[in-house]
Write a structure and sequence with these properties.
Helix 5 packs across helix 6. 31% of the residues lie in helices and 24% in strands. The N terminus is likely disordered. By secondary structure, the protein is α+β, with helices and mostly antiparallel strands. The chain is built from seven helices and 13 strands. The relative contact order is 0.18. The longest helix is centred in the first third of the chain and has 18 residues.
């Protein structure tokens, strides 16, 4: 049964990013995924996209930005930039003199200070949030899971993807590039585990043969908050989402769903 709306837990603000790079031999694009440490309370041992909760410092920096983005939205995008650098060593959503050695130094500096603003000041970089495209927003407030995150998903593109990545070995134990279909195949074989939102997003991402196709669909479908709901069908309880959100698969039997 769904949790009554009046008892729904307050969502923890979070943000995550699907980072694309060109696939080999003109194949489908690859996306970056990470295996979360089994010790993590939420999605321990699961394959997910880079990201995490929005910190107070992200909200502070977002409120200082000005420009076209609402401060709350800016804070979520800033969190994506910060978490990606911290978790993977990749620099996205920033502009300035950036190379591999500076990215490595910035990652270490961020891990020491914990705030993106100090990194920007230290390296003379600026936020360039136009590199991020809003893709989705998931808030499973009706589900009985240890922690409920209100998570905004974004897209970003590395193009050639000729970059170094390394897991932080605290929250994440492994980073890997794969096509969306490759990740789904690995999940079917049991090589990786994915929770319900990740599986649905992989199925959506598998529709696209280029980053540009993914971006075009994301821009054509307004982001609305997705709250999965229970529905009884053919003698089984299914976990479902809406039919008009851009997802080719909108439900799964509850007894097969992996949760956080």
């Amino acid at each position: 049964m769904s949790t009554p709306e009046t008892q729904a837990p307050e969502g923890i603000p979070a943000a995550t990013v699907v980072i694309f790079r060109n696939g080999p031999d003109d194949g489908p694009p690859e996306i970056l995924m990470t295996i979360r440490s089994r010790e993590m309370v939420f999605a321990g041992g699961m394959a997910v996209f880079p990201g995490g909760r929005v910190d107070p410092a992200d909200f502070e920096l977002g409120a200082m930005m000005g420009g076209p983005l609402e401060p709350d939205e800016a804070a979520h995008q800033i969190a994506v930039v910060r978490e990606t650098l911290e978790e993977t060593g990749l620099v996205i959503g920033l502009s300035g003199e950036i190379d591999a050695s500076k990215a490595q130094a910035a990652r270490q500096f961020l891990q020491e200070t914990g705030e993106l603003a100090t990194v920007l000041d230290h390296f003379g970089w600026e936020l360039d949030l136009g590199q991020l495209t809003p893709f989705a927003r998931w808030y499973p407030k009706n589900e009985r899971i240890p922690r409920v995150y209100d998570t905004r998903f974004y897209l970003a593109n590395l193009g050639t993807g000729a970059v170094d990545i390394a897991a932080d070995l605290s929250e994440n134990t492994h980073l890997f590039w794969t096509s969306a279909k490759g990740a789904l195949d690995a999940a079917e074989k049991g090589d990786i585990k994915v929770i319900f939102p990740t599986r649905r997003n992989l199925e959506r991402l598998a529709l696209f043969s280029t980053f540009e196709e993914a971006k075009a669909q994301a821009e054509a479908i307004p982001v609305r908050t997705i709250t999965p709901f229970m529905e009884d069908m053919e003698g089984k309880t299914w976990l479902q989402i809406g039919e008009d959100l851009g997802y080719p698969v909108t439900g799964e039997p509850l007894d097969s769903v992996m949760r956080g």
